[in-house]
Design a protein that fits this description.
four-stranded mixed sheet; 53% helix; alpha+beta; 226 residues
């Protein structure tokens, strides 16, 4: 059976959405990143980058959420748009832009030490995250889904991060991206999305962001490279 290494963060949740939508049988394997389980030698054999999600599909290892979505879509023939060029363009837009900038926006908005001046970094990542969502909102103007006329892995990839827009950009941020919000709301109303979000609740994860958690989540705080 396919093993799915995950926690409740955006990237694993979008893979959980595909698994729930497709009906693929899978075994969820909890990786508690606040406890540092992503650095365990047995997990590093699955993903040398020490991040979730990852899958082990009967010996075929795939890591990085967008790579997993593409692999599973090609394996099952589900949620795969026919226009491959457009599929790859927008899937990589989410992978290289939306995800990284969103993650950094969250970091500097919520987790960067308050006793240091992070104004430049905070503004840069807020600006770039907003810029990416404005591009997405413009693309969705007059179209129902990201690629073609049907729900696909690109919509799933976007949903994983976009449903967290208020946490990244402020409570009123969705008002700036009405087309993105419409798509997020539609996907979030699907039963598979509810199951994907609830998957983490079947396990116990460390809730406290204490010194142990910060040292495991943000190793740059204790290790200087230059």
């Amino acid at each position: 059976m396919l093993k799915f290494y995950f926690n409740g963060s955006p990237n694993p949740t979008k893979v959980a959405l595909f698994l729930e939508e497709s009906g693929l049988a899978f075994e969820p394997v909890k990786i508690d990143t606040r406890k540092g389980e992503q650095f365990a030698p047995e997990f590093l054999k699955i993903n040398p980058n020490g991040k979730v999600p990852a899958i082990d599909d009967n010996g075929t290892i795939v890591f990085d959420s967008n790579a997993i979505l593409l692999y599973l879509a090609e394996k099952t023939g589900k949620f795969l748009p026919s226009n491959r060029a457009e599929l790859l363009s927008w899937l990589m837009f989410v992978a290289t832009g939306v995800g990284p900038y969103s993650g950094q926006a969250v970091n500097f908005k919520h987790f960067a030490p308050k006793d240091q001046n992070h104004d430049y970094a905070h503004n840069r990542y807020q600006y770039e995250t907003d810029r990416h969502y404005r591009i997405l909102d413009g693309h969705l103007q007059g179209r129902h889904y990201m690629v073609g006329d049907s729900y696909s892995i690109v919509d799933m990839a976007l949903w994983g991060w976009a449903r967290m827009v208020p946490f990244k950009l402020g409570d009123d941020a969705f008002a700036r991206y009405p087309n993105v919000k419409r798509l997020v709301d539609e996907i979030s109303a699907r039963p598979a999305a509810a199951r994907a979000i609830a998957l983490k609740d079947k396990f116990t994860f460390k809730a406290e962001m204490d010194d142990e958690a910060r040292s495991n989540m943000f190793k740059h705080m204790t290790t200087k490279v230059a």
